[in-house]
Design goal:
Length: about 675
């Protein structure tokens, strides 16, 4: 008879449990998708230029989503367990032994967990397969099709089961150490909040953490400082809201007129302050990652079209200074009404990358500036098109293990150099290899020949002293496959296609060999129109994965908001009933419920937008240190993304508000 009562009780309350199990399914599915993306990220990339920033994005998104998934699963299953524990107290009073009660609860709990684990992995398998298939379909140049390995299933199971066990163990210990009355009153106790002005010191500490986060972010490249800066920003904001919010509520409490007028709407913050602040931290983290981190990167990529305006020449060829080549070049520019500039050059190799070496004299011709280099001193020029020539670079330079120095070897990156830099070789590491370390007298950004790279270092320009350059130029020009002259072609619009086509045909037949050993695909001939097509395809690929992470994080945050609102329906019903007994009008009751539903999410939205706005400005400063100059268009695109974020949030809140009002009214009529 007792088991029949338990079964009927479970069936009658299944709608309350459904939302918790759904939260669990979403958490498991996100585990599967992002652990799966991380596990296959290096395998699916066909080209090193394609994974520029992508693997970093996947790693960061994987960490954030896994933390969020743990939080939402813990929240959902904790709510379920607490609810069932309270319901089982009735059966405990009717004579059920405590051990049997816990056994039944654990049976229900792990049955639900097992079902949600399989459902979540099935949903995650469909989503991950869809994402990989779409990437391969639209970007076959970069993404190869790979099977989803067993390790993804195993990792998802391990992580999910760990969460299930941790929640069950902690709650059963808690229940065993509390009496019946404490269990019945759980959720009714008023949670404490900071009230005294002395807590302002933690608010100030939060402001200082935010300032430190901005400062570190603007001055550190991709290292631990970069990670710490984001943690400082998130927890600094949390401190400001947690302690500053508590003090603000206490100040409002003393303003009796305002307090009494808005008491019903503020009730959730006053009575469940700690729970709401922890939920604020969870939602704020994922939404800041979306609007701040992903949003600013999307804004920097846009617009994708129109990249050709950043390239000063229609074609750049690194060839030999021979009579045959000179005759062809002169004939080509004459036939197609073009022009050509010529500069002496050498190929320079870095770690799995090739650069362009020019002389001090050529640099002075291009820039009008003298540098007075000696011996192995160089000027390192980072090719950027969103900049101005000579822009000082103070961060992100190619220091290889020793500040102020970079590792270089004159000549193309051939098999011999590839073996030299291999970790399996017996050659010294870069920081100890003094024969190939060059002191960077100046590091700057420029766009002298065009940014023919998608990664970080390929085709950057190295300026050598005149004597040092001439020594290597004379030596390398004797090598058959080493280019020694830089040809810069310009054609009128009407003949550009024919002229570059003729040039490509000649280089394919008579040009220097492309060794193809660099991480990024590099060539001796770059035709701007062809490269821009590849560049726009690469930018579109980067945009697609950043947009996917942006939407995944936003949807995750909004779904967590739904789970929280659904779990608080019983509280909304009690307050609605209380307001009805007090004679409050229906319109006022709806307004009060709407305010309570929307208050915390709108505080979160405001915090996300304020912190992200500062993040955008710090990103512009950081990029400026790296040599990139962004205009106001970054703010415009980020503003559009933020408007979309606000719209999505407001639509979600309106739907939640109407859903809560409908459910509460239905219960009130019964």
């Amino acid at each position: 008879m007792l088991y029949q009562i338990i079964l009927k009780n479970f069936k009658s309350s299944w709608k309350n449990y459904f939302v918790y199990f759904t939260g669990n399914i979403i958490g498991v599915a996100e585990f599967f998708v992002f652990l799966g993306l991380y596990s296959v990220s290096k395998v699916i990339m066909k080209d090193a230029s394609a994974d520029f920033g992508t693997i970093q994005d996947i790693m960061l998104a994987c960490i954030l989503v896994c933390i969020f998934s743990v939080a939402i699963m813990t929240y959902s299953m904790q709510k379920f367990m607490r609810l069932r524990l309270r319901e089982y107290q009735l059966f405990y009073v009717l004579g059920m032994k405590r051990r049997k009660m816990y056994g039944m609860i654990l049976f229900e709990y792990f049955s639900g967990c097992l079902g949600t684990l399989f459902a979540g992995m099935f949903a995650g398998r469909l989503m991950l397969g869809g994402v990989l298939k779409a990437w391969h379909y639209f970007f076959p140049e970069y993404i190869r099709r790979v099977p989803i390995t067993v390790s993804v299933y195993m990792d998802t199971c391990k992580l999910s089961v760990a969460v299930f066990l941790a929640v069950a163990f902690s709650l059963l210990v808690w229940a065993d150490n509390h009496g019946l009355q404490d269990l019945m009153n759980d959720g009714k106790k008023k949670e404490k909040k900071p009230q005294s002005r002395k807590w302002l010191v933690f608010t100030v500490a939060g402001v200082l953490l935010i300032a430190a986060g901005y400062w570190i972010y603007a001055r550190y490249s991709l290292n631990y400082g970069y990670l710490y800066s984001h943690l400082f920003l998130i927890f600094g904001t949390f401190f400001v809201v947690l302690f500053g919010g508590g003090i603000l509520l206490e100040i409002l409490h003393k303003r009796r007129k305002f307090y009494l007028k808005h008491l019903l709407g503020l009730n959730g913050l006053y009575s469940r302050y700690q729970s709401n602040m922890l939920f604020f931290l969870m939602i704020f983290t994922v939404q800041f990652a979306a609007v701040g981190y992903c949003g600013v990167q999307i804004a920097e990529i846009l617009p994708i079209s129109g990249q050709e305006k950043y390239f000063p020449y229609d074609a750049v060829w690194m060839g030999k200074d021979t009579g045959e080549n000179q005759n062809f070049v002169n004939q080509c520019v004459k036939e197609y009404k073009g022009s050509v500039k010529k500069f002496p050059m050498i190929r320079v190799s870095g770690y799995s990358v090739e650069l362009v070496g020019i002389s001090e004299k050529t640099y002075e011709q291009l820039s009008g500036k003298q540098v007075h280099l000696k011996n192995k001193e160089i000027v390192y020029i980072q090719n950027e098109y969103k900049t101005y020539n000579g822009k000082k670079v103070t961060m992100g330079a190619m220091d290889y293990g020793r500040k102020g120095y970079t590792w270089l070897m004159p000549g193309s990156f051939d098999k011999e150099k590839d073996e030299y830099v291999s970790p399996e070789s017996n050659h010294p590491i870069a920081s100890k290899d003094w024969d190939h370390l060059y002191r960077m007298k100046r590091i700057e950004a420029g766009n002298w020949f065009g940014k023919y790279r998608i990664g970080v270092e390929a085709e950057n320009v190295v300026v050598f002293s005149e004597n040092y350059f001439n020594k290597w130029h004379e030596k390398l020009k004797k090598e058959k496959e080493e280019p020694d002259l830089l040809y810069l072609f310009s054609f009128p619009d009407r003949t550009e296609k024919q002229g570059t086509k003729e040039l490509q045909k000649y280089v394919n037949k008579y040009g220097n060999q492309d060794y193809g050993l660099t991480d990024e695909v590099q060539k001796t001939l770059y035709v701007t129109a062809t490269f821009v097509t590849e560049l726009e395809k690469s930018l579109l690929f980067q945009l697609s994965n950043k947009a996917f992470f942006f939407l995944a994080l936003l949807v995750s945050g909004n779904f967590a908001l739904f789970v929280k609102t659904a779990s608080e329906l019983p509280d909304y019903r009690k307050r609605y009933e209380f307001l009805s007994c007090m004679g409050i009008t229906k319109k006022m009751k709806k307004r009060t419920l709407a305010w309570e539903v929307k208050l915390l999410p709108e505080i979160t939205t405001a915090a996300v937008l304020l912190l992200s706005a500062g993040y955008v400005e710090m990103e512009k400063i950081r990029e400026s240190y790296l040599g990139v100059v962004h205009g106001k268009e970054v703010w415009i695109y980020w503003g559009c993304l933020s408007a979309g974020y606000i719209l999505l949030t407001e639509v979600m809140l309106e739907l939640l508000k109407k859903w809560v009002a409908k459910r509460v009214e239905e219960e009130n009529r019964r």
